[in-house]
Amino acid sequence: MEKADDTRSGTESCALSDLEVEGFQLPDSFEVSQLCSVRLKQLLSKLQNGEEPDKDFLLRNIESVVRILDGVFVEETKSVCDDEDELNKVETEAVPSEVRDWLAMTFTRPTNLTTKRQNADSKPKFRSVANAIRAGIHVDRLWRRVSTPAVGLHIPANVLPLLKGIDDWTFDVFSINGASDGHALKYVGYELLQRNDLIGKFKINVQVLENFLVRLEQGYSKYNNPYHNLVHAADVAQTMHHVITKSGLADWLTDLEILSAIISALIHDFEHTGTTNTFHVNTSSDVALLYNDKAVLENHHVSSAFRVMKEEGYNIVAGLKTEEYREFRSLVIDIVLATDMSYHFQQIKNMKSHLTMPETIDKTKALSLMIHCADISHPAKDWTMHHRWTELLIEEFFRQGDREEVLGLPISPLCDRKNTLVAQSQIGFIDFIVHPSLDVMGDMVDRILYTLQHPASSSIIEQPTDRTNNCSKAANNSTSTMKGPVIPTATTTSSTVTAPGSVQNQNLGGNSSTSHKDQQQNCSSGATRIEITRYWDACLAQNKSRWKERAAMGWISPLQEPRKTGADNGQADVPEAAPGETDSKSADDQTDSGVESPILKETDSPRIT
Q1: Is 497 helix (H, G, I), strand (E, B) or coil?
Q2: 3-class state of residue 70 by DSSP
Q3: What letter does residue 433 receive in the DSSP assignment?
Q4: Within a 10 A sphere around the Cβ of 547, how many other Cβ atoms?
Q5: Tens-digit pLDDT profile for residues 567-604
Q6: Could you give the CA distance from residue 456 to residue 421 in angstroms, rounded to a whole number?
Q7: Active-site residue identified among 138, 154, 183, 228
Q8: Mean pLDDT throughout 435-447?
Q9: Nearest to 226 by CA among 571, 528, 471
Q10: How far is 330 from 61, CA to CA, in rounded Å?
């Protein structure tokens, strides 16, 4: 062997001084890779220089390098699965055991080595752990959606099939309530938390969760309200879930923010009295005095719910860290207080203004607008459910009017049992409250999806120029039994983004299996932005048309239409309701901001809470 140059490194000298394989052991340091590299280079150099080493000599050296590199690979691979490796330092709440197993199987090769590294300080780090965690959590969420948990809330066999449609826009919460004997909130609430993997993520004890949900149902049933009851709470929570998951906003929100949104929806009308904020103020009720006439019911809802969470056996957020709890509480308070309809016009105005600015949309404001829209969304559902909700709400208004008459107070708008134009009030509600609110929410979601798709872009998204055609087409192609379609998500792999208004609402009559790819085939090739489908336009157009027909016939109230009565259970002429379908935000949802009045004025209509 030729003597090594003085300028060569010690490692290279070592390799050159011993090209024989005998006695060459696997080093315990990173230098092994360099040794193999130098050995191969020298063999290559000899061959290039015309030297012809003995065949056995060449084979022994190549086999030696192969053996060493194999050993290095095994040791490096083993480090990924080692108990002390960076991957195993990931907190279990961030990556469940199923995901950890998936990561190990996907990103490493199985080994049977029993020896341990002698020098722990020299082991390499798992450099892609962040990306692996993201991928693992995503796969785990998908897995949990299609699997049945080993331990969880027992759901009756007749309720399970109905929960399969919980992702749909027109999910029938009344059917769930009937099948579950009045426990829609318990089963819907649990299913929403489970589907979003929030129970495992935040270590929520299932028994404590069940206790909490049952307590909520009891609070919602306290005043036997026809409309603001546990069914309404379940409906609002499911609508929030639909908007978050089907629009792609789940990629924009954190798990804690999704938890806050769902819990806020579940508690947003807790212990509603069946009367409006104005009624409480006018009668100087205890809660009005307690909260100084400001957002009376909303403050009561959120305060009472947090008091329940402080009780032993009901604290569903016991697993949150201190900072997480503070953020959770702050978000829930802001979101629930945003359901005060007296702030409707200001909230819509602020969001419109915000959408003209280049700044990022504030998540609290976004969630607040979403729950506000979910709270008043029943006119955007199919006619059967919308009409039923209207009957229940009007009956609740009438009950307040009856009390006001007894107390000698002026009867609030829409609360006069003898003189209320229900059809006209619903037309005004749709035209001036619901439709504008949903359009602003749609614009907001479009903006968020666009920024997700183009994180480097700061340009303002122009408002859609024409949705009339889409709305009319959707109305012409919709049915009363439609299910909500899939909304294009921000995670599309297409090189173009959906053009404004190009995703037609014609698939409203279909099911939620419609693919994003199929929807994109209707988009123009020159598209530059992404937009959700305004699938509510069809229902609003259809429902408004039906109310116009009734208004033309001179109908004063829903009582003129044949239907089942609830006189036996004190719900004068309202649809048959399952136990527990009674309580919560009475005149609030469609009264606070002039909700039901054909001529909407903030000052002359009951407040929605």
Answers
A1: strand
A2: helix
A3: I
A4: 25
A5: 333 333 433 333 333 333 443 444 333 333 322 333 33
A6: 51
A7: 228
A8: 96
A9: 571
A10: 67
